[in-house]
Design a protein that fits this description.
- The structure is a single chain.
- It is built from 5 helices and 34 strands.
- The protein is mainly beta.
- Strands 1-34-33-32 form a 4-stranded antiparallel beta sheet, with no helix packed on it.
- It is globular, with a radius of gyration of 26 Å.
- 26% of the residues are buried.
Length: 509
């Protein structure tokens, strides 16, 4: 049994004293620092103040304290009292424009061969199939790899747990002329898979109808699993490790020669990277499920999955089942029973607690799975805590009586996410502060207003609210990022992107 430790408050002076004496580990120090920062954020004499706004004609992105404008051409740092330009890349031609990008930071527990491999970097894919690794601080080119002259790559995706990322090509569509001529297009797409820390190629593989079936629509790589979606409203999972071990024809190294390229160098133009993972027969299926919109999520402890069965009668419900035997958990059908334009959302909590967050327009439920790993009894889904909005009491009655005594029934019911009502719009988790940031809108006074509620992630207790200055128009697309002392709100107004930045400041008297 672990020894009992009494909880005690920690102040900034004490932490500084410990640090000066070298009597505290780096991990413990960070935890104490974040605990102090959380306390500062929740003080009544601190407010988030809007300090900066910028409009752009192109997609605007935020990640890890940086805002990217103009298709990642310019980067602003948010570590100062207001954002400052970190770097601006030279203008690129249409062929060289960035199609997609990922931010990549090396782990601290590894010693890599080259100092450049430790630098935080931006992995950027260009329209002409080059993969660049740029310094996240200066935009300097650290490395570049040519992918292929034969396949058009367009999308980047992470498999974080495996320290891998993948580059996905556009789908090969069967043209009407080819169909009339009886020409079958078997290749659906290609995936190029890389290791990071340092950057190394695993290989390129073809997703083929002959192997995976005629109804393949999409493929993603996650947690070491190749997930294949089908137009028949089903998803199949395959072991990527098994695929590599069985079907890799040649191990490739960037900058080295390859027999598949006739002795040419891997990653050089115009040869690129050969298809070295050649799947000739269908690998074993680890898991298969029928689901609406090809949506299935896996997580929890013990392992469970969430899906909505494709049958019409299950619309609006979310089923939580054991991954071991597909048995439905007790209380495993979750249904908000809401009447709204936007559908409710459900996902496994990003804090790796195994919990589930179910977000509706007026209620957010945080659920936990109760069950033992090797038990024969079904697991149970229980509510841990719930958050609700304040609904107006003057909602229009469905039935009214006229002065003559005639009963009139309203044809349309007021929606749960009506602009006049307080409505939950999105949930963000701040992992370092262990806070849930929830965006709430209310247009009761005739104009869309929004505020952020900060809840304790363990208890669901409301700790404070932050008002947003700008109006919130529900007809536009919104993103919100809560990152310690910084709040970033990005809205898309038609073809314009507006970025608003808030910083934590002491309240002025």
């Amino acid at each position: 049994m672990a020894p009992y430790r009494r909880k005690r408050s920690v102040n900034a002076a004490e932490v500084l004293s410990w640090r000066s004496r070298g009597g505290i580990s780096a991990g413990t120090l960070i935890r104490y620092n974040m605990k102090i920062l959380r306390g500062i954020i929740l003080q009544d004499n601190r407010n988030y103040i809007k300090v900066w706004s910028k409009t752009s004609k192109s997609t605007t992105m935020y990640e890890d304290g940086k805002i990217y404008f103009e298709n990642y051409q310019s980067c602003y740092s948010c570590v100062h009292s207001e954002p400052q330009l970190l770097y601006k890349l030279p203008k690129r031609s249409k062929l060289e424009k960035f199609e997609d990008a990922l931010l990549c930071q090396s782990p601290l527990d590894k010693t890599l061969a080259s100092p450049a491999d430790h630098k935080p970097s931006l992995l950027a894919l260009t329209a002409n199939n080059w993969l660049y690794r740029l310094s996240a601080k200066t935009g300097e080119e650290l490395e570049r790899v040519f992918l292929s002259s034969n396949h058009k790559f367009r999308y980047l995706g992470w498999d974080v747990s495996q320290e891998m990322f993948y580059v996905k090509s556009v789908q090969n569509k069967e043209t009407p002329l080819a169909r009339q001529a009886g020409i079958t297009q078997n290749t659906v797409m290609h995936l190029a898979i890389f290791h990071v820390f340092p950057l190394q190629i695993v290989g390129i593989m073809e997703i083929n109808k002959k192997v995976f079936g005629n109804s393949v629509t999409d493929v993603v790589l996650s947690q070491g699993v190749l997930a294949v979606s089908y137009s028949t409203k089903s998803v199949k999972l395959y072991s990527f490790e098994h695929i590599v071990q069985k079907y890799m024809a040649e191990k490739l190294t960037l900058g080295k020669q390859s027999s598949h390229l006739g002795g040419k160098t891997v990653g050089d133009a115009p040869f690129g990277i050969p298809v070295n993972i050649q799947i000739t027969d269908c690998p074993p299926v680890l898991f298969e499920v029928s689901c609406s919109n090809n949506g299935v999520q896996i997580g929890g402890y013990p392992w469970h999955y969430i899906h909505t069965p494709p049958q019409k009668r299950h619309k609006g419900t979310h089923h939580i089942c054991s991954l071991k035997d597909s048995a439905m958990a007790s209380n495993g059908i979750q249904n908000m029973n809401c009447c709204s334009l936007e559908s409710d959302g459900i996902f496994f909590h990003p804090d790796d607690s195994g919990r589930i967050i179910h977000v509706g327009p007026t209620t957010i439920n945080v659920l936990k799975i109760l069950g033992e790993l090797n038990s024969s009894l079904p697991s149970k889904v229980a509510e841990e805590f719930s958050m609700t909005t304040h609904q107006n009491n003057n909602r229009h009655s469905q039935v009214t009586v006229t002065s003559s005594g005639r009963t009139v029934k309203r044809r349309f019911q007021q929606l749960d996410d009506d602009p006049d009502q307080e409505t939950f719009r999105m949930v963000e988790y701040e992992d370092e502060l262990d806070l849930l940031a929830v965006v709430v809108t209310n247009g009761e006074e005739g104009e869309g207003r929004a505020h952020i509620r900060l809840y304790d992630n363990q208890s669901g207790q409301l700790l404070r609210t932050v008002d947003l200055v700008e109006l919130w128009d529900e007809t536009y697309r919104h993103e919100l990022f809560f990152d310690k002392d910084t709040i970033v709100h990005i809205e898309q107004k038609n073809t314009n992107f507006c970025c608003h930045v808030y910083k934590l400041k002491a309240a002025t008297k």
